[in-house]
Amino acid sequence: MAGGGDSLRALLRAANALLQQRRYHAALSVIKGFRNGAVYGAKIRAPHALVMTFLFKSGSLREKLKSIAQATYAHSRNLAYFVFTYKGLLATQSRLQGKKIPFHSFLAACIGGWLVFGDNNPINSQIIMYLLSRILFGLARLAVEKGYIPQPKQDPFPLLAALVWGTVLWLFEYHRETLQPSLQSSMTYLYEDSEVWHDLSDFLIYNKRTDSK
Questions:
Q1: Which of 16, 84, 108, 172 is the most exposed place for a label (fewest CB within 10 A)?
Q2: What is the 3-state secondary structure (H, E, C) of the chain?
């Protein structure tokens, strides 16, 4: 028994010594990136899928739990694959050219995005739209920082909020099919289901009646 414990401690010491080797840093960074992508994807998707599934999806408890597990797995897997691909390509380019340049990041991410997130499905679509909104904000701030557009004299956020809400409600009312299904569900709940009730039960307590009255 003691021999087994000594062997385990020796193995751990060897592993820790390996992790300290600078020449393996790039490869180990890729592996840890895969791990972090998987964990982060699960942390982000699981609570979101849980809430959205129980709020808006019908079906048995087993079907709902299966849907949550599938969505969580898909998000976790894709993010892990992307981080692995991105960091691997980044390290390869840096090694080939002898240094890291900004274009390496763009090219590695483009390739990773094409390979991992190129399939047009609900999970990937949500991730891409999440990133797109933040990219637009980031590019606008960068344009001001670099002097490509003048610094606004007043905070432009109220105007942006007005345009975003005006556009999305116009699309929902007249071109609903252009919106993502989960957004359609949310807006249906907020703006259409609030138009229908029969008595106090489905006016204040429930969204829709479940009995046959």
A1: 16
A2: CHHHHHHHHHHHHHHHHHHCCHHHHHHHHHHHHHHHHHHHHHHHHHHHHHHHHHHHCCCCHHHHHHHHHHHHHHHHHHHHHHHHHHHHHHHHHHHHHCCCCHHHHHHHHHHHHHHHHCCCCHHHHHHHHHHHHHHHHHHHHHHHHHCCCCCCCCCCHHHHHHHHHHHHHHHHHHCHHHCCHHHHHHHHHHHHHHHCCCCCHHHHHCCCCCCCC
Q: What is the pLDDT of residue 2?
A: 58
The string of pLDDT tens digits covering residues 114-134 is 999 999 998 999 899 999 999
Res 1 pLDDT > 60: no
Whether 41 and 80 have beta carbons less than 8 Å apart is answered as: yes
Flag whether the pTM goes above 0.85: no
Residue percentage of the chain with pLDDT more than 90:
64
